[in-house]
Amino acid sequence: MTTQTATRTQVAGPRRRKVAGTGWHGLRTLTLTEARLLLRDPGTVFFALLFPTVLLVGVGFAIPGMREVITDAPPPWGGLTAVAVYVPVALATAVATVALTTMPVYFATFREKGVLRRLSTTPMRPQGLIGAHLFINLVTVCVAALLAVLVGSLVFDLAAPANPAVVGGSFLLGILSMFSLGMLIASRAGKASTASAIGMTLYFPMLFLAGMWTPGPIMPEVLRTIGGYTPLGAATQAMTTGWFEDGVPLSQLVVMAVWTVVLLPLAVKLFRWS
Question: Which residues are in the ABC transmembrane type-2 domain (predicted)?
Answer without folding.
Answer: 43-274
